[in-house]
Amino acid sequence: MSTRGVLWFCLHQSLICLAGLAATSNSLRASESVLVERVRSTWRAQDGETIEQIVSNVSKVAQFVPGNWGIAEGIDRTEYVYLSWTRHQDNKSDEHYVITWKIGTDGKIEVASPYAKPIELGWRALALSLIASEITDGEKNANLPFLHNPVNFNFVTTAQGKLGNLLRHGRCHIIEPIVVDYVSKANDKPTEKGDRWRVLLLVNCNIPGPRYFTRNGVITFEKREGQDWEPQSFLAKRLAAFPPGSWFDHIEPNEHEALEGTRKASANGRTEQDGSAAH
């Protein structure tokens, strides 16, 4: 199978590619090298970070060993630039991951690998996403301190300030699970939300408030292209509306019903867990 064919298979079937695609990147034609350098020199994350900055920083905190650059072509003649990588320096398998950038007919460069879309938010978002995946996949030595450090979530902004700063001032500790990803709209679900970045985490907060929010409290934010971050969960909306630590000082009458529903759901969840434990 040709290098281009291998990458096209990977784009549609898996995040993992055959190592053969990386092996040929050292023999790129001059025209292909120009395309690779164009992507590396002109693409920027939303905060202005370059690819080189992101790759360098992520490789220091996540199990991310960058490999070679290469070129691929889609069945519609669309050109792709890719960077291969592995989780371990001594990787002995024939498989690599790839991050791909699509080169549009208008010259626009955009990330084509859905799992890697957090890279558009900057290196911390990509690192968090990869480390969370390491935990899900059972990898050893995942960087938990980085995953639980509130500062690393400051790329999420609210009307009250950056998310990580709000969590620190609100005396909140991040626990798992943690999700930093990109959600694509299903083509067969016209009422579903459009493509969006998503951040979801659980926290324990040492502040007055309902226990079902201050213990294992769910914080969810979403962001669409060109728009601000929007709080989705009840606790996220409180963080975005009130100063740190005073999230439950003012409960509007129309919010009591939502709070009561959450309390009952939390209580039912604990009852079911207790029942399972008894058996």
Structure description:
The protein has 279 residues and is of the alpha+beta class. The protein contains 10 helices and 11 strands. β2 and β3 (79-86) form a beta hairpin. α4 (51-61) runs parallel beside α5 (123-136). The N and C termini lie far apart (54 Å). The model is unreliable at 1-9, 11-26 and 270-279 (pLDDT under 50).
Instruction: Specify Rg, calculated over alpha carbons.
Output: 21 Å
What global shape is seen?
elongated
- Judged by helices, strands and strand pairing, the structural class is alpha+beta
Number of strands: 11
**Overall average pLDDT:** 82
Strand content: 15-25%
In sequence order, what are the helices and strands, one letter per element?
HEHHHEEEEHHEEHEEHEEHH
Helix count, per DSSP?
10
Unreliable runs, pLDDT <50, ≥5 residues? 1-9, 11-26, 270-279
Q: Helix content range of the residues, please?
A: 25-40%
End-to-end separation in angstroms reads 54 Å
What is the oligomeric state here? single chain
Q: Please summarize the sheet with the most strands.
A: 5 strands, antiparallel
